[in-house]
Amino acid sequence: MEVERTTILILCVLSKHGRVNAVDQSPRSACRLVSDMYWEQVPDAKDDTGQPLWVCTLCPDKQPRRTRSKPVHEEGMLHQALKREADLRAQAHSTPDEYRVLEQDSQARRAMVEDATLALLSTLAHTPEPSRAPSPEVAPFDWGLRHPEEPRPTRPLTLEQEVSRTVAQALLERLESDDEEEERESADVDEVSQVPEPSVVVDDGADGPPPNLRKRALPQDDAQIRRHWFPWVDKITCTLDVLTHLPRSVFSQRQLDLFLWLLRVNDVEDVPSVRNMLRLNVVLQRACGIDSIAYKGVLGHPYYVNALNQIIAQEMGNPLVRPHLSFYPENTDGRHLSEARQGAHWLEEVPDDFLTPMVRVRSKDYYVHEPMMCEDGRVCMPMRWFTRAEGGHHTMYAKCWDMEPVASDTGSGWRVMQTSSFEVPASRLLKNFPDLCAAAPMYDLPPPTRIFDVTLTPARAEDPPSIVPWTYTNPANGNVWRVRAKGHRVVAFPLWMYCDDTSGNLSKKWNEHNSVLITAAGLPREHAQKEYNIHFLTTSNIAPPLEMMDGVVDQLRSCQKDGVWAWDCTFNEPVLVIPSVLALLGDNPMQSEFACHIGLQAKLFCRNCWVKGRDVAGEHEGERAPRDDAAIANASDRPMPKKRGRAKRALESMSDMVCRVKAFLKPGTPRNKHETAEKLQSYFTLAAVPGTKTKIKERRTESGIKDTLQLAHLEQLFNSYKTKRGFTAKQAALSAAIAELPETTTNPIWRIRELDAHQDTPVEVLHVVLLGFVKYFWRDLIQGQLKNKDELKDVLATRLSSLDVSGLGISPLAGKTLVQYAGSLTGRDFRALAQAAPFVIYDMVSAECYQAWVALSRLVPLIWEPHIENVAEHLVLLKKEIDYFLHSTARWTVRWFNKPKFHIILHLVEHVRRFGPAGLFATEAFESFNAVIRAKSVHSNRQAPSRDIARAFAQSNRVRHLLSGGYFMFDEAAEDTAPGSDEIPEPTMRARKPFSFNRADWRTVGAGPRSLVAAHSTSCSVSCSEPKFLAELQTGQHLPAVALRYGTRRFRSCREVILKNGDRCIPGSMVIAEVTGRPGQTMVGRVDEILTPLGSLNDFNRQADRVLLHCAQVSRPAGSYGCPYIDLQPQRILIPTLDVLCTVNVQHDCQAHQCAASGSLDVRQERQLTGSKKACIVHVEPSDGLILNICQMRDARHLKVYRPVAPTFDPDQVVLAAVAQEVNAQKSIRIRAEDSFAGQSGGTGRPSGVARDDSLPETTSGRCPDGRRGGIAARGGHVFRSTRTAGGGRGSRGSVGTPAGPVSAEPARGDRALSA
User: Fold this and answer.
1) Bond preceding residue 1027 cis, omega within 30 of 0
2) What is the mean pLDDT of the chain?
C-alpha cells in the first residue's frame, strides 16, 4: 500500500506540473502529438535521407531537426512548457500587462511545485530508517532531506520501502536529466529501431556504481570480490559459467576454448583457461549442485540418473517456484476446473499415504490417521486434507471418519467408522493427537492410543459392513511422519512424469535417445508448461525406457520411504517432502509400454479398456509397437525399416462388423494393474517349464498384455535350453537360468504404488488429435480426394492465404506450403488447419466428409479449453461433441475405425474429470524440450552420452537455482580441490554435507550474480490521436446524450489497445464483452472507437478508458458451417475497456456469396517487390454474412455459450447404415476385381476346373481414405487389401496387409498401420 500511495502521489504532483512525459514509454506505441503549427522548414536543407529539416518556433535554441525527431522533441519538457504558455496566451486574449502578471504567477507556481516535487522525490529516494518507538520528548520534524552520503545508523528496509525508494530515485534522475541532450542523442536513431530492448545493468562490484544505481560499499580486495560474486570467485568466472550452461546456449569444449581466446586477445584480464572452467564446474557441483548417479541396468546397460531428491529440494528453495506450488487438493464442488489439484484423481483417488499428511492450525500439527477432537467435542479420524475456495481465499478442510467408543475384554478403546464420513473445517479443530492423549481422562474418553478395528464400507449396498483390525498406523505411536518430521511441516510433491525418444543427431540419421523428464504437478497451469520448470532425469541411447525407469523408481521409492528434507524459502524453515507420480505422460506407444500393453497394432488395441478389434489369424506380434507419430519438430528422422510380408485376412460378415464398430464407439471394461500383474506372473509360471514359448506368445496375443522388460528375461530362459536334449536336461538348464535372474524382472512401473499405468496414462491430445485426426483428414484431402486436381489445390492454397486470422493468435497462413507439403507438417500447422478448414473446403469434398471436418473443428477448442467453468456441463458437452465427431466420421466411412485413436479419444472425458483440462497433460512443452536434449548430445564427444547429458543438465539446474535466488548449503569441503591443480577432479558421487536445520547455514548468491538477471522491463501503451470534444467523435455522433453529459471534456481517440488477456484490439475488431450489471453474461460486438479522457490517470498511463461497441446478435445458424451468423444491430453502447474480454475471429460466408479468387496481390521476396502477382479471394458484400468462428481455440471458454447445438444421431442407425454402405462398396470392389480377372483370362473370372473358394488371388487397384494406394486381392469370394509403406518416414514399419472389406484406412507415410 505504501508503494501505491507513493506512486499515485508522485504522478499526481508531476501531472499538475507536466513533467511526466516519457517515462518508460515505448516509442513505437507512445502518443505522438505532432503538429506543424510550431515548425518552420529550413530552406534548401535536407538530411542524409533526403528529408527536409525543421526548426521549432517555440524553443529558443533554433536547432535544425529531422522529420522523425519532431515527435521526440515535442515530448520534451521544455517544448511542452512553452506550448502550454502559448496556448494560455491564445486562450486568455489578454493585454501584455495582464499576460505578464499571469505568466509570473504561473512561473511562481511551477517553481514551487517543482521544488516540492524534487524535495519529495529526494526524500523518498533516500528513505530513512523505520521509525523507532515514540519518544516522550518533542523532537524537531525530520523531512528526510539529509544528504545520502551523510553517516547515519541504518536498519534493513522493508520490501515496500525498497520499491518506493527505487521508483522515486528513477523519477528524480529523470527530472534532473538534460532533455535536450537526450533528444540530441536520439535524433540520429533510425525509426526502424525505435523498439526499446531490455537492458541489463550488472553490478560488477568495482570502479564505482553503474549509472542510475544507489551508491553502496564496494569490495576492495579479493575476499570482498569473492563474497560479492559468491559462490563464484569473480565476475569473469561467473558470467562464463552461466553462459556455458544455459539450456539453449550450449558450448562444446572447442567452442569454449575459442571464446576464451577471443577474450584474451581483446585484453580482457583474468580470463580462465578451459581446464580451470571445467575444474570450477566440478567444485561448484560438489558444493551446491545435483549429483548424477550411475546405475547398472537389469539388462546390463549402464546409465545415469540425476538425483531426484536434490531436484525437489531445489524447487522448494527456489523463490521463483515455491510460491506457486500447491500441496493440497482443492474441492471446487464442480464449479470450475483449471488445475491438476482440482481434479478428482488428486482429490479422491490418490492413496492417503502419498498426500500431504498434516496441517498446522494455531501452531499445532494435525496428522491423518490420528484421532483428533473438534470444538464440539466430537472425536474423529482425519483421512485426508483439502482446500475449498471461500470468500476469496482457500480454507483448509479435513475429510474424516467417525469414531465411536467400544469395550472389549482388554478394556475400552475406539472403533473407526469408515461407513460414516464427513468434512470439518480446520478452524474448528480443538485438540490434536498428543493433546487428546493427555486430555482423554479429563473428558472421560478411552485412550486414543487404543484403536481396535475399523468398519469398512461394503462393495455392494445390500451387503453388511465388515469389521477388520486397524492397520493404517500403530495406534500407540500415531502417524509415522510425525516422528520423521521432528516437529516440522510435511508436504506432498506430486509429479508429471514424461518419457519419449528423440534423436541425438542434427542430421536425419536416427540416433534414438529415450529420456525421462518431470515437472511439478502442483504448479498452476500457466507455469506447468514452461521450459523453466521441466527437469531432466535420465537418457540413454542403448538402455530401453523400462530399464532406465528401474533406477528412477528406486530413487522415487527411497524418497517416499524417508522423505526429502528441503529448505522452504516461503516459510523460511525446514520441510519434509513426499514425492509421488500423479500420471505418466508420453505418446501412445510409450504409454502402452508403461502399461505393459501389446500396442496399437494388436487385437486388444486399447491400454485403458478391454475393447476388442477384429480376430486376426496368425496375428503378428512386434517387439515393440512403432512410434505413434512424429515429434513436433522432426517428422522424418527414422531409418528405413525392413519390409514385412503381406498379411491377408478374411472378410468379416456384416453382423460381425456391426458388433465390432458398436464396441469401438464406446469405452470398454476398464483394465487395472492387479489383473495385469497376475497375467504377467502367469507368464513366468509357464516359462518355468520347457517348451512353453508358443503358449506364452498366444496368451500375450489373447490378453494384449506384454512386458518388454520381462520379455527380455523370458528370451534368456527360452535360449537356456535350446541346445539341450531331453526334458530332464532342459529343465535343469532352465532352473539354472531362473536362479541367475535378477531380483526384479518385470516392469518397474508396477512398483509405483500410487499409480495404475492403465488408468493414469491420460490421453495425449497432441498425438491423438492434432497429429492424429487432423493430420489423417488433411492428408486424405490433399493426397487422396484432390490428387491430380491441381486447379482445386491452387484454389485451396489461395483461400488459406487469404483467410482472416485475427483473433486466432496465429500468423497468416502460408497456403501453398500447407497444401504442397501436406506430408511434412507439424503440430502448429495442424492447429491452424483445425480452426480454418470449414471455411476453405466447403465445396471440395462430399457432404459427409465436410460434416466430419466441421465436427472435428468444433471439438478441438473444447479439448484445449484451459479453464472449465462448470465441470459437469462441460463433460456432458465434451462427450456429446466427441460422439458427434465419431458418428459424422462413421457416416463418411467406417474405414477410419481401423485406427485406434478414434477409440482412444473416448477416454478423454474421464481423464479430464480426473486430471484437469487436457492442456495440463499435453506434451507440447516436453516435445520442445527434446531440442535441448539434442543440443546436449551434439555438443558432447558421444562416448558416454547418458553420463555427459545427465551432468550437463545437472550443471544447468545448478545455474538455474543460483541465479533464481535459491537457497543452498555451500559445502566448503568441496573446495579442497585447488583451482591450480593439474588434474581435473571427476564429479563422482560423494557424501554431501548433512542437512542443516539452522537458518544461518542456508545461503544465496552474492549481489553480483543477482544483478545479471535484474533486467528492466518494457511496458506497452496505446496509440492515440489529438484530443477532441466528444461531440466531434463517433461516440458523440451515435450517443448524443453521452456527449452532452461530458460537456466540454476532451478525449483522445486511440488506434489500438492491449486487452487484459493480451489480445490486440483495434477499431473494427469483433470482441466479446461483459454485460454491465449482469455478471457472467456476455455479448458480441464490433469496436467502433477507443477513447481515453484527456488528463485522466489512464491518459498519463497511456491506457484506453472506454470503448464504443456496436452490438450484434449471435443466434442465426450459418448453414453447414456449424457456426452462427453475426448480425449487427442499430444499438451502440459505451463500455469500460476492462469489460472487453477478448477478440474473436470472424469469417465471411464465401459459400453463400460465391466468393472467388478474382483479386491479386503483389508478391514480396526478401522484403522486396518482385513485380509478380498472386491470386487472392475477393469477398462479395464483405459486410454481409459474417460468421462467428466457434472453432477458435484461443479464449474458447468465452465462445462456448454461442456454440450451436450439435446434431444428434441414433448410434445404432448410424452404424448400421455405415456398415451397409461399406459392404456395398466392398461388393463393388470384388465385382470389379473379378471382372478384371475375367477380362484378362477371357473366362468367367475363375480358372476352369477350380471352385470359386479355391480361386487364385488377382489384384486391382484401390485407394485408402487418406489417398495411398494398395492392391486388392480377391480369393474365394473374399477381398484383401495389401498396402506397402515405402519406408524412410518416421514411424514407418514396412508393408502391412489389411482387409479391404472394410477397406483399411491405411495411415499416411510416417504413421502406424493398424490391424484393429
Assistant:
1) no
2) 80
Give, to the nearest 10 degrees, the angle between helix 2-17 and helix 159-175. Answer: 10
Of residues 979 and 434, more confidence is placed in 434
Return the closest-CA partner of residue 1188 out of 1204, 1176, 1205, 1207.
Answer: 1204
CA distances from 984 to 66, 69, 274, 279, 644 (A): 60, 58, 11, 5, 52
Report CA torsion sign: 459, 461, 462, 463.
positive
Residues whose CB falls within 8 Å of the CB of residue 236, separated by 6 or more in sequence, listed in order: 263, 268, 270, 271, 272
Grid coordinates representing 212 are: 542510475
For cell 516535487, the residue is: 117
Task: Give the whole-number percent of the chain exceeding pLDDT 70.
Answer: 76
Place of cell 476352369: 1248
Distance (Å, whole) CA 1106 – CA 626: 57
The reported pLDDT for the residue numbered 1225 is 87
How far is CA 341 from each of CA 331, 400, 880, rounded to the nearest angstrom?
Answer: 8, 19, 26
Which cell numbers in the block locate residue 43?
530552406
Instruction: Work out whether strand 1064-1065 and strand 1106-1113 pair parallel, antiparallel, or are unpaired.
Output: unpaired
> Tell me, what DSSP letter sits at residue 34?
-
Separation of alpha carbons 231 and 962, rounded Å: 9
Give the CA count within 13 Å in the CB-facing half-sphere of 385.
Answer: 27
> Would you tell me how many other CB atoms lie within 10 Å of the CB of residue 1058?
16
Q: How many CB atoms lie within 10 A of CB 1162?
A: 10
**Nearest 5°: CA angle at 382, between 381 and 386?**
165
CA dist 700 and 839 (Å) reads: 47
| Whether residue 460 has pLDDT greater than 70 | yes
Q: Pick the residue with more confidence: 286 or 774?
A: 774
Beta strands 1082-1093 and 1050-1058, pairing class: antiparallel
Residue 1308, pLDDT > 70, answer no
What pLDDT shows up at residue 148? 36
pLDDT category at 25 given cuts 50, 70, 90 is: very low
Per-residue pLDDT reduced to its tens digit, 796-835 = 999 999 999 999 989 999 999 999 999 899 999 999 999 9
For residues 371 and 448, the answer to whether their CB atoms sit within 8 Å is: yes
Within 13 A of 924's CA, how many CA atoms are on the CB side? 17
Record the cell numbers describing residue 680, joined without a space: 504377467
Looking only at the bridges linking them, the beta strands covering 489-503 and 573-585 are parallel
Place of cell 477478440: 1143
Q: At 541, is the secondary structure helix, strand, or coil?
A: coil
The residue-averaged pLDDT of 1048-1064 equals 88
User: Residue 994 in contact with residue 1050, Cβ under 8 Å?
Assistant: no
Q: Is the pLDDT of residue 89 over 90?
A: no
849 or 617: which carries more pLDDT confidence? 849
Among 919, 861, 851, CA closest to 885:
851
End-to-end CA distance of the chain: give it in Å, rounded.
65
The DSSP call for residue 189 is S
| Residue count of the chain | 1316
CA 468/CA 1097 separation, integer angstroms:
69
Q: Amino acid identity of 276?
A: N
Q: Per the structure block, which three cell numbers stand in for 974?
A: 568441496
| The dihedral formed by the CA atoms of 527, 531, 532 and 538, expressed in degrees to the nearest 10 | 120
> How does DSSP assign 850-902, residue by residue?
HHHHHHHHHHHHHHT-S-BSSHHHHHHHHHHHHHHHHHHHHHH-GGGGGSTHH
User: Given phi > 0 = left and psi -120 to 50 = alpha, else beta, which region is 334?
Assistant: left
Q: Identify the DSSP state of 157.
A: P
User: What is the amino acid identity at position 359?
Assistant: V
Contacts 24+ apart (CB under 8 A), 736-739: 738/688
d(CA 1271, CA 1262): 6
Q: Would you say residue 550 has pLDDT above 90?
A: yes
Cβ distance 474 to 495 under 8 Å? Answer: no
Q: Are 1252 and 1246 in contact (CB under 8 A)?
A: yes
